[in-house]
Amino acid sequence: MADKSKLGTEFPAFTYEVEKGKIAEFVMAISQKESKDQIDQIYASKDAAKKEGYDDIVISPTFQTCFALWGGGGLMPMITGLGINLGRLLHGEEEYEYLKPIHPGDAITCKTKVVDMYEKEKKNKPGKFMEFTVLETEMTNQKGEVVIRSRSTLVER
Amino acid sequence: MTKEVYYKDVNVGTEMPSFTSDPINRTHLVRYAGASGDFNPLHHDNTFTALFGLPNVIAHGMLIMGITGRAITNWIPQKHLKKYKVRFSGMTDPMDLNDAENTTKRATLTVKGKVAKKWEEGGEKLIECEIETADANGNVKITGTFVAALP
């Protein structure tokens, strides 16, 4: 069961440097493709991205999920830190607000805070509860610009 | 290349072109685990899922959100995307390669969407589109919305 005393906790900030190859690898995975030549080239080629009106290769709309998983020490420290049982963990909701584009070479600093913890009675099992933990993350680039705000709702079934 | 979409051509009720994924198999899950860094064993190790009463590994919710995002950026150039929000409403089992006949539908996802709102604010021409991702049996995986600022 999630530890309610963690409400308001801020996790240590960390910085992730965006790599070109990682963007292509990620987009290949969500595109179910075997090669970077088969994906939308705004994610793989600077020239192609420029032709489409971008300054450089851009990240795809959900790429920032990598920041915490690769740059923030992985999933487990955060989950155990919150007292969540991994086997009961489900992802409830995910929300992004895009403020500035993110390109290869950008160094993105992420600050995550626990903004809400609550429970809801299960519809089909009265007296049993699902636990919800809501995390908000502000992502800032090397110029100090906020690039993405995200909100994740984790559920323990 | 994603074709430009203009505000004047989009109305409340306009449908987003539907998009269908390839059948998701375990190799897709492994590829996504490596790419994203999400190594929760729930997504690749069925000796782990068995501990919690699940017979199968299940797809990463974020893979389904990523596939749904492709449907969006296939229609609206990504640079116009302002907000993207989903609720995960069902788990996705990958197909079994030794039983494709009975398992392909559960692993093949189609994304549909419809424009719900259209308005101008702060000099921007905005649309909000409601989206839904479901498998070929009709089981819903994701409901959500995105907001885009169009030229």
Task: Explain what the structure shows.
The complex is a heterodimer of chains A (157) and B (151). Chain A has 157 residues and is an alpha+beta fold. Chain A contains four helices and five strands, in the order βααααββββ. Chain A has a five-stranded antiparallel beta sheet. In chain A, 34% of the residues are buried. Chain B has a single domain (7-23, 58-149), classed as Thiol Ester Dehydrase, Chain A (Roll), CATH 3.10.129. Chain B is α+β, with helices and mostly antiparallel strands and 151 residues long. In chain B, strand 3 (109-121) and strand 4 (124-135) form a beta hairpin. The longest helix of chain B is centred in the middle third of the chain and has 15 residues, at 61-75. The chains are: A alpha+beta (157), B alpha+beta (151). The interface between A and B is large, with 38 and 40 residues.
Shape of chain B: elongated
How many separate domains of chain B? 1
| Amount of helix of chain B | 10-25%
Oligomer status: heterodimer
Query: What is the arithmetic mean of pLDDT of chain B?
Result: 96
Q: Helix count of chain B, per DSSP?
A: 4
CATH class of the largest domain in chain A: Alpha Beta
Order of helices and strands of chain B: EHHHEHEEE
CATH fold type of the largest domain in chain A: Thiol Ester Dehydrase, Chain A
Topology:
The complex is a heterodimer of chains A (157) and B (151).
Chain A: E1 14-17, H1 20-31, H2 46-51, H3 65-71, H4 75-81, E2 89-98, E3 107-121, E4 129-140, E5 146-156
Chain B: E1 15-20, H1 26-36, H2 46-49, H3 61-75, E2 81-88, H4 100-103, E3 109-121, E4 124-135, E5 140-149
Antiparallel strand pairs in B: 1-3, 2-5, 3-4, 4-5
Record keyword descriptors for this entry.
heterodimer; A: 157 residues; alpha+beta; Thiol Ester Dehydrase, Chain A; 2 domains; five-stranded antiparallel sheet; 4 helices; 5 strands; 20% helix; elongated; B: 151 residues; 32% strand
Give a short synopsis of this structure:
The complex is a heterodimer of chains A (157) and B (151). Chain A is α+β, with helices and mostly antiparallel strands. Chain A has helices at residues 20-31, 46-51, 65-71, 75-81; strands at 14-17, 89-98, 107-121, 129-140, 146-156.
